[in-house]
Amino acid sequence: MRHGLASVSRGGWIAGLGLLAWLGFIGAAHALPAYARQTGQACVACHVSFPELTPYGRMFKLSGYTIGKRQDLPLATMAQFGVTSVKNNRDDQGQKIVPKTNQPVLSAASVFAAGKITDNIGGWIQWTYNNLATDSAGGTVGHSGIDNTDLRVVGRSENTDQTDMRWLYGFTIHNNPTVQDVWNSTPAFGFPFTVPPNGIAAAAATLLDGALAQQVAGTGGYVYWNRSVYVELTGYQTADGFFSPLRAGQDIHTAGGVHRLSGVNPYWRVAYNREWGSNSLMVGTYGAKFRLYPDNTMPFTPTDSYTDIAVDAQFQHISDPHTYTFQFTRIREKQDYRASYPATLAGSPIGVGPTPANADDTLTTDKFKATYYFERKYGATLALFRTHGTTDPGLYGPGSVGGSANGSPDTDGYIVELDYLPLQNLRLMLQYYGYTKFNGARSNYDGSGRPAGDNNTLFVNVWLVY
Amino acid sequence: MTRVKSRCRWISALLLCVVATAAGAQSTIASDDVAIKLASQVCSSCHGPGGNSISPTFPKLAGQQQAYLVAQIQAFKSGGRGEQEAHDYMLGMTTLIDDATAAALARYFARQPPPPGVSTDPALMAAGRKLFTQGVADRVVPCANCHGDRAQGNGIFPRLAGQHAPYIVRQLKVIQGNLRNSPVMHGIIKDLTPEEMNEVAAYLQSL
């Protein structure tokens, strides 16, 4: 056994040294991830602080990640290592809620294949190892699967005096609604950019707000005119068949797990962008209409209909030494339970649900975030979030910690984050979630005596990209 | 016979010259096409349409001196410009282009019409004008001596007219701190005060 451990340890050392040598080798060009190596530019050229994009970063993304020189080894890595602490991490039975709190843990590591393929084709594929995936017994296990992915084919044309781009257009295949968007007010790359692993989540969220990530294939086209008007149309379908690599690693066989869409579901996006001095402003709208099977393992039943309509805005002032940015979005979702509700009413719910008590509900999420950075190194962010919707005891029933005593999905809170980036690719962060209302109430929200504030969470995290 | 041979030689030489010139022109045209694409699709993201940048982090390049532009591209490549922005934004971009493209880009930006100046505080601009045209006795020679009466630049000496004031101040500090390899300019402005930098930058931006 000792011998075995020693050889594992020796093997680990050799692998570790090999990795270091490789990092040293690729770092020799520029000690930054794949795109930085491709363009030779620093992270700050494209990011306010990763992953929030600068105006140039937006152009780089819309240009299909094709600016620069194709790399022989277009790889990058990312790891997160942190400590999570929940104010009261015991439920009313004294059971631990969030596993592995109050101790440093490697939460996740990713490998990216990212970059230019030709002058018109580029993209990125992220593969993530989640070290703290939860199993059915409530413990943690290691699990790997595909993460955000975006592949593009683009084209451009110049204006008549050959001074600027008139049209920038492209085609994208991706696996998470809004991951293709270039403004950080939309959900996929909205704040918070990373969250405590297995943190306590509120009962309700709109479908556009992350619920379909790594489950769908989005195929869409966009045009960006005169760097001012952006229009996109994308269709989302469950990533089956040819598209199944886009959801690799997802458990699609457990009822009540991931979501399953029927057919191709439309998503649209219109944004107006303006830049002046060190400032940029965007106001926009986006939305989608989804047909969703009530039970993801029964793709033959009638479907419920979800209509999401959102408005968003972003302002950025990027200069030296002061940088400040603001993002806002409101997503309003109309949930039409045209399949679930009659079935529930008739006493024969479809599969495991949902089993709504109303024929239709609405759910509205507001998110606002303000960030300040000094020398792109020392940052502070305040975010406010609010989700309010129709009371529906069928969807939001009582239950210790995760439930709602009054059937309301209403959750209000704030996030304070402090960041220090000693290197452009290393973020040391302190994040605090405070809840003033959780699943419908401030006190005894779950019917088991738990106040919303018990879910307040502190997250200390080291986030490295290379 | 000898005359005929000699005439043939002349004709051949002439033809060669024509072909060589045509080939040269062809490659210049090809470089110019690449430069137009680069300038309008990549450079314009920071330096603005036709080199008329919007953000003061990035200099305006429209109407800039061709020789100066070529020299700066070489300086970014060689590390002669060592300020943080040069490393973060320009080092990688310039290492991707060859000398012919660099020359074509310089030609492109030099022929773009420079944007009109932007005026700010009149007192600041007046003080800056005095410094630019007359210098400071025993300390700073008049800037106009090299940069031209209207700060239009001259060959290796850059055009400064209409440039973003914060960019000019930043570069003066960078040269003062020897982060940008410019020994002559360093010697001239080594005693320039921050106030004087603001004054001359306000004046130059207004031109």
From TrEMBL, chain A:
Entry superkingdom: Bacteria
Name this polypeptide is given: Cytochrome C
Source species of the chain: Dyella halodurans
Automatic annotation (TrEMBL), chain B:
Family matches, as Pfam families: Cytochrom_C
Protein localization: Periplasm
Keywords: Electron transport, Heme, Iron, Metal-binding, Periplasm, Signal, Transport
InterPro entries named among the record's database cross-references: Cyt_c-like_dom (IPR009056), Cyt_c-like_dom_sf (IPR036909), Cytochrome_c4-like (IPR024167), Cytochrome_c_Oxidase_Subunit (IPR050597)
Domain Cytochrome c: 19-113, 123-207
Highest taxon above the source species: Bacteria
Entry-linked PROSITE patterns: CYTC (PS51007)
Listed transmembrane segments: none
Signal peptide range: 1-25
Main location (coarse class): periplasm
SUPFAM superfamilies noted in UniProt: Cytochrome c
Keyword Electron transport: yes
Alphabetized PANTHER family for the sequence: CBB3-TYPE CYTOCHROME C OXIDASE SUBUNIT FIXP (PTHR33751), CYTOCHROME C4 (PTHR33751:SF9)
Protein name: C-type cytochrome
Source species of the chain: Dyella halodurans
